[in-house]
């Protein structure tokens, strides 16, 4: 039995915002992000693969979008060797916003700047790891699959990133972890 338009519509509505933000954080412009997301959903609709056969649909969508963006990036760069655009070349932007009603606007701005300054030392790949884990609430298995690394390498990578951030600014790191863990618990 094929999936219905209603299934795809619900899946789209539930995930489009997170997918769009992910594509934009990877450094792609608005139109390319939208086109890639639509391509992913069109492919799902056109395929015979059952949605219920996918063990983790959110992880599947992030991976499909990332791969589609890479493909589109390769095809849009006529003068770039196809082997030069890889997952490691993708720029990943990450900024933290804090929505705590107890913090006044000035303190909030100072805190956001401090955390963003701490995060600025990370490479694009490290920011992507942080985004997937703490802002999207992905499990390590999903992150490893998405980043195309082994699970042990994913754990090791996260440990190194956390140590790097902790050394940069211990107080900002502690606040960052509080806010990010709250974000994971909401999801």
Please mark out the parts with pLDDT under 50 across 5 or more consecutive residues, or reply none: 78-85
* 3D shape: globular
Number of H- or I-type helical stretches: 8
The helical percent reads 55-70%
Biggest sheet statistics: none
Specify the structural class: mainly alpha
Describe this entry's structure for a reader.
By secondary structure, this protein is mostly helical. The protein contains 8 helices and no strands. α1 (about 5-25) packs across α3 (about 55-75).
Task: Please write out the topology.
Elements: H1 5-25, H2 30-46, H3 57-76, H4 105-119, H5 124-135, H6 140-147, H7 151-168, H8 170-186
Helix pairs in contact: 1-2, 1-3, 2-3, 3-6, 4-8, 6-7, 7-8
Short synopsis of the structure:
By secondary structure, the protein is mainly alpha-helical. The chain has 8 helices and no strands. The two termini are 30 Å apart.
Features:
187 residues, 68% helix
């Amino acid at each position: 039995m094929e999936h219905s338009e209603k299934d795809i519509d619900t899946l789209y509505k539930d995930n489009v915002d997170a997918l769009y933000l992910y594509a934009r954080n990877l450094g792609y412009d608005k139109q390319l992000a939208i086109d890639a997301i639509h391509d992913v959903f069109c492919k799902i609709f056109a395929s015979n693969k059952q949605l219920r056969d996918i063990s983790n649909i959110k992880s599947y969508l992030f991976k499909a979008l990332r791969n589609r963006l890479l493909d589109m990036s390769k095809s849009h760069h006529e003068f770039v060797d196809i082997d030069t655009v890889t997952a490691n070349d993708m720029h990943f932007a990450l900024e933290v916003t804090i929505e705590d009603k107890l913090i006044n606007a000035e303190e909030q701005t100072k805190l956001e700047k401090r955390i963003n300054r701490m995060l600025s030392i990370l490479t694009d790949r490290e920011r992507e790891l942080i985004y997937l884990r703490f802002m999207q609430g992905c499990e390590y298995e999903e992150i490893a699959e998405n980043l195309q690394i082994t699970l042990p390498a994913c754990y090791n990578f996260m440990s190194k990133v956390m140590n790097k951030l902790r050394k940069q600014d211990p107080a900002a790191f502690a606040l960052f972890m509080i806010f990010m863990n709250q974000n994971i618990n909401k999801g």
